[in-house]
Amino acid sequence: MSETTGLGGTILVIDDERNIRRTLRMVLEGEGATVLDADSAEEGLEMIQRALVEGPEGQRPIQVVMVDVCLPNMSGLQLLEKLCEIGGGTPPLPVILISGHATVTDAVRATRLGAFDFFEKPLARDRVIVSVRNALRHYQTEAELRSLRARARREIIGESRPMQELLRQVIKVGGTRARVLIEGESGTGKELVARAIHDASERRAAAFVKVNCAAIPRELIESELFGHERGAFTGATAQKRGLFELAHGGTLFLDEIGDMDLNAQAKVLRVLQSGELMRVGGERPIKVDVRVLAATHRNLRELVASGEFREDLYFRLAVVPIAVPPLRERPGDVALLCRYYLDLACHENGITPKRLSPAAQAALEAYPWPGNVRELRNVMERIAILSDGDIEIGDVPQEIRGDPEEEAGAPVGGEAVVQFGEGAVPPGMSLKAFRDSVERAFILQRLSEQNWNVSKTAETLDVERTHLHKKMKLLGIARGG
């Protein structure tokens, strides 16, 4: 919105003086704004609350509020306090306070409450227009941020603390131009994180170009990244633009950067340093404006130490390192992901929506998911396609639910397992069988106490969650099994 363009937007004016409301309406509508008005803070608050509920994601029917400080019953400052409560500490909309009897105390209080601006009557036309224009700009920036956050939440699924922290980092770094190194095990969703960073950036309308460095043969990677001229090598029958050029103005995502050979690393470093590249067989440099995001499942610091990765390139790429947590470190997210990918698989394959039985859900939650989210998604699609009706424990793959022969009270290690009450130890029972029986009964009791929440049970037992998973599999413990 330039200084010479109209205001646009919808402004709510709250003042008990009709002449003030009429004057502001004439000024603001003369600049292209839509004006709503109210003669009390109570009426204005109702209008704002309706707007916040009814407004679509990112945008709201009211963008700026102008309110008089001195109003009967509820004052403008009291209205601002209530808006802070609604907004969780800050007003959900820019609020401009106006007053005919302003005091320093009122101005300080308004600032502390997050008022966007504060000025006195009589109103100066130019002052009003400048203030409202700035408030509309602020609102638009916040609306875009809300939309980006909502989009990131849709793509990055998870309510656990590690995932909420990851989401916070994505939104924070997305609005910058910094290069980001995304680290994490295979299947954790590093590409989703890279795309969310791109979508949260000012480059989101431009290209997002991805390349898997591990999937391109070493002899071709330079041509893929930087392009080549006609005749540069055998088979180069035409000029080709490289991925850096295709990503000009946007984002280039270098996945599995740890598998790039040292020669290509040196050329990538030169592009990052100079902003220029040379096509294979080319004679003149080409300027490119690209934000580079990189990802790897390998430990680049160890590769640097062993001489397999350039230290200078590492520091260029890892301006902001972000770690994507493995699924085993995200307690509570497995159930959410299972439901999401089950629904998605049914939708994509034209299958009637299905539900997970408690036993099936428990088995899926107890599995450590070494392949992370990628493995989980594939399993849920397989289950959705092969199962008849809702998902029962028998529909869960055997490698996930454990040995079907190991049920409660079944043999473990080839010897009878019993639950001990007041009876004597069965004759001939070995020490190992006795120990396994007692341990199994103890873990079952703790799982029951925690409603089969494996993470909470691990906490009460003071063991790692992965260790408890292994112990449960060894002892044949499975909910509903």
From TrEMBL:
Name this protein carries in UniProt: Two component, sigma54 specific, transcriptional regulator, Fis family
Organism of this sequence: Nannocystis exedens
Keyword Transmembrane helix belongs to the record: no
InterPro entries: AAA+_ATPase, AAA_lid_NorR, CheY-like_superfamily, Homeodomain-like_sf, HTH_Fis, P-loop_NTPase, Sig_transdc_resp-reg_receiver, Sigma_54_int
Annotated positions of the 4-aspartylphosphate modification: 68
This protein's UniProt keywords: ATP-binding, DNA-binding, Nucleotide-binding, Phosphoprotein, Transcription, Transcription regulation
GO biological process, one term: regulation of DNA-templated transcription
Pfam families registered for this protein in UniProt: AAA_lid_14 (PF25601), HTH_8 (PF02954), Response_reg (PF00072), Sigma54_activat (PF00158)
Residue stretches making up the Sigma-54 factor interaction domain: 156-385
SUPFAM superfamilies (alphabetical): CheY-like (SSF52172), Homeodomain-like (SSF46689), P-loop containing nucleoside triphosphate hydrolases (SSF52540)
Superkingdom field: Bacteria
GO MF term set: ATP binding; sequence-specific DNA binding
Keyword Transcription regulation attached: yes
Response regulatory domain residues: 10-136
